[in-house]
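Reopening: Flagellar motility protein MotE (MotC chaperone) still failing for me.
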Amino acid sequence: MKKEKQQMIQEEEKQNYTFLQKLLYLFIFPVLFLLTLVLAILTFQGTNVFDLAQTFLPKDQAGNEEPIAGKDENPPNKKDETKPETKQEVLMLEREISDKEREITKLVAELEQANDRIRDLEAQEQEIKSSTKELAALYERMSTKKAAAIIKELEEEMALLILRDLSVAKKSGILGQMEADQAARFTKLLAEEE
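Support: Ran it again with your exact input. Result attached.
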């Protein structure tokens, strides 16, 4: 019994659709949806649909309007001649903009790489400074004679890094143990760094 009632209600609902409702649901809504979809696709591709639609309008619409006295209007032919040039100019400008955007993106990527490299170098510099401070502390505990003998054998750059971190008393003691020309060179290099 319930099934029969439900079937009757469904049949009544099916019969309640008028011709206009059927027309609206089956024809008008799908066509409107299709037009909206086409408009969205063309807009996404960069086509100005409204400018394109104006090209299909008759060119003699200016005859319906009365010209205003005292105003100089360009003839329709001159307007049509400038449109292709402006469209080409717009396309060229859009290409230039996209090229510039690509160039900016490339430069930003290079800048990020350079910043990463700078951070890496700063981290390495900090490691070198901490290790030279440890070495300087080690040389502080050595006798000046042994420290001078070792520093003589080191590369000049490394020796300067260590000497820079030593106390003044220890530095003078080590330089006093070196040969005069070598001590003078280190003294000059240390003075230039300060």
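The two ends are 105 Å apart (CA to CA). If you still see a failure, please send the error message rather than a screenshot.
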